[in-house]
Specification:
Elements lengths: L3 H20 L3 H8 L4 H29 L3 H17 L6 H29 L5 H30 L3 H10 L1 H13 L18 H17 L5 H10 L7 H26 L1 H19 L4 H29 L3 H30 L1 H26 L1
Helix pairs in contact: 1-4, 1-6, 1-8, 3-5, 3-14, 4-5, 4-8, 5-14, 6-11, 6-13, 9-13, 9-14, 9-15, 10-13, 11-12, 11-13, 12-13, 12-15, 14-15
Length: about 375
Amino acid sequence: MINKNIVLLGLVSFFTDFASAMINPILPIYVVTILHEGMDKLGIIVAIATFFSYTLRIVSGYIADRFHIVKPLVVAGYGVSAISKPLIGFTHSYKGVAFLKTFERVGKGLRSAPKDLMISKFTKNKKYGKTFGFHKTLDIAGELSGSIALFFILKYFGSSEVVIRNIFYATIIPGLIGFILVAFFVKDIPKEKSKSIKFKLQKEDFKTVKFLLIYFFYLLFIFDTSFFVMQAKDIGFATALIPILFIVLTATQTATSYLFGILIDRFGFEKIVIFSFLSGILAQFFLFFEKAVFTWIAFGFLGLFMVASLNANRAFIAKNSKNQGFVYGFFYTGIAIFASLGALIVGNIWHYFGLEASLIYSLIGTTTVTLIFMVYRYVRS
């Protein structure tokens, strides 16, 4: 039986990601075609927003562990995200988008590690894979629903600048619903009964961190979702069809998240991580064909990579670390550094040398990291 607070947190994520899914598919198009900025500028936006989003998570995770402040950070994070998304509709340059997207990601940075800590504390019988899989299912269901809503809006109202700006404004509604749920209905975790608030990393924490490093290096090479979107646009996808690609992406994750959680508990984290890495490689490989049918398939494999890798790493941290809040923060900070660098590199390679060169860079890197991890796992066993 899933704890009701985990169900409520899942609903909070549902509405928040509903709002995110209304803008994420059109944000790259908004920047490149409406604001008339280049792919290098898009790479800068992705890199800055990603960096600040994930870097703050180690701070919020540390605060959660050291001072036992958990729910206030989660509430503040959702509040910041709810406010910042609609404001993007008022921007007129990539700098404005970068600032507000970064501000929105700051909200995610504040809440993510404490939220994962809450989920792990409310988990029964240490079924971490199952619990995180359940939460991720609601999370991704929100993205799926938002993508469907976006599709119908673009289909019936068109993709003019006015319509796209109004979509940004409309995200205030699901954002506020999520904020109200977390602020007034989700309980805080019980306070630790301790006379001291000393903080000290344990050897289990260091072992957990070592395992996460391979995932960080993989992120240095894999395409961000924004680049998948621009590849689709380059080969002729209409703006109104872009949300359908995100429906494929999120439907794949929704359908498999809970299953991956069960598989993680049964077969272990490492096998699922390897599967996710292979899925990421295939996702990028299919982009090489530059045909619509293969782009559809690519988004499906990208969804498998995203949901399997994230569920496996989050469950691994819950099971193996002592200072969970801090390690979750470290995990997300590592994502910040490597995903940001990857976005900058891919954006510039694409801008100056084209799509094919950027894909070659990504495929060589992700394949190499996967092989290293498989050899390491084989030698160790």
